[in-house]
Every structure is written in structure tokens, then in C-alpha cells.
Design brief:
It is built from one helix and 13 strands, in the order ββββαβββββββββ. The chain has one helix at residues 90-93; strands at 2-6, 45-49, 55-63, 66-74, 107-111, 119-120, 124-133, 144-152, 160-161, 164-169, 172-179, 188-197, 202-213.
């Protein structure tokens, strides 16, 4: 099996493909510290040979200080899961790529409830909304079943769990974060989010400087 990942570093050559392969296109995009998956390809492709049987994998990305770690289970696909509108990148760069489908990685989208200057009021409770989602190419994505929100006001030295975190709608959660007084937290508020889905896959994303208090 083979998987491939697009990276922001210099280009690397692909290895010789095996008969069966699995493909994942990873493109890190920064928007409020959010990573997203795209189907566009480039010359910056790395390929890995993987076993055909089901196994647990870990993938880590660090983009502009935002660290994201995925853990997921994957195996050889029985059939392709790539609509013609978003073809597998391996079809363009690898001869005889075999069956192809996206990997079931959880991505996170945030509504931090900030003012226009990207700040939030110090003191009291503050609400944020976090939504988990998957690549559009994944025809039957799992459901995000659990989400943990932690905040730090000392540069990541200590982390405090949200006062409450509750499911709002499918894959969407609202958390109440307790903000200290402005003079007790002169720096930025950091966020650490951990999500788990119905397939047992997880993502942990750490945003050291999510927003400031005023």
C-alpha cells in the first residue's frame, strides 16, 4: 500500500508504487489556526508504502505554530471513493494507482466569538463554537461524538478545561471558557481542542495564540 502527503517543505520524489495503495492529500491552510484538506496537487508529494491490513496511524502537522496530531485507523480500500469532480492526486502522478479514497481525518472549524479587533472581554465566561468536519470526498464520514476544550493564559504552561462543553448540532459543540481579569492575563489566550469520532479516530489541535483579552 502507499499513501501520499503534500507538505509545505521542498519537493521529494515519489517511491515506486506497489499494487495496492491508499492516498491522502494533506494541504495545510491557515485561517484562525484551522487546518483544512484540499484535493489540489503539486510537485511537493511524499509517498509511503503501508501494509494492506487495518492498522492505526498517526499524522502530525505544524503550521505557523499551530500543532495538529491525528490518530486514525485505515486499511486497503475495497472500492474507490473519489468523485470525478475531485479526483485522487495519485491518478495524475502514479501509474496504476489502484483503489483510492480519502483518509478519515477530523478537521476543526472555529467560531471564537471575537470582536472586530480579534479580542474578547476579560473576566467572566466566554463562548466559543467548534465544528468537526471531513473531506468532501469522503462519502460516508463518521460523526464527531466527543470534544474537549482547554484554554491557557500563560503561554501553554498550564491548561484549564472549559467550564462546560455541550453538543449543539451534529459535529458542533459550544464551550464556555472562563476568562481571568485583564491584569491577570496580559498575553494571549491559547486553545487546545481534542475531538473523537464514532470510528475512534481523534485529532488534537493546539493553538498557542488564539486571541487576546481586552
Amino acid at each position: 500500500m502507499m499513501t501520499e502527503a503534500r507538505k509545505e517543505t521542498g519537493p521529494m520524489n515519489a517511491t515506486v508504487p506497489s499494487k495496492w495503495r491508499r492516498t491522502v492529500n494533506l494541504a495545510a491552510l491557515t485561517a484562525l489556526g484551522v487546518l483544512a484538506m484540499t484535493s489540489c496537487g503539486s510537485a511537493d508529494v511524499i509517498t509511503y508504502d503501508l501494509p494492506a491490513e487495518s492498522a492505526r496511524y498517526s499524522y502530525e502537522a505544524d503550521t505557523n505554530g499551530v500543532k495538529t496530531v491525528w490518530e486514525y485507523t485505515s486499511d486497503r480500500p475495497d472500492k474507490a471513493d473519489t468523485p470525478t469532480s475531485q479526483p485522487c492526486i495519485a491518478d495524475a502522478i502514479v501509474k496504476d494507482p489502484g483503489k483510492c479514497r480519502p483518509e478519515p481525518l477530523i478537521f476543526l472549524r472555529y467560531d471564537l466569538g471575537l470582536d472586530l479587533d480579534n479580542t474578547a472581554k476579560a473576566g467572566g465566561l466566554h463562548s466559543i463554537t467548534v465544528t468537526g468536519y471531513y473531506q468532501d470526498r469522503l462519502s460516508k464520514p463518521p460523526t464527531v461524538t466527543k470534544l474537549r476544550v482547554e484554554a491557557s493564559v500563560d503561554g501553554g504552561k498550564t491548561w484549564q478545561p472549559a467550564i462546560t462543553t455541550q453538543a449543539d448540532k451534529q459535529n458542533t459543540f459550544t464551550a464556555q471558557i472562563e476568562h481571568p481579569k485583564r491584569d491577570e492575563a496580559p498575553g494571549e489566550v491559547g486553545l487546545r481542542i481534542t475531538a473523537t469520532d464514532s470510528a475512534g479516530d481523534t485529532v488534537k489541535q493546539t493553538i498557542p495564540k488564539a486571541y487576546q483579552l481586552r
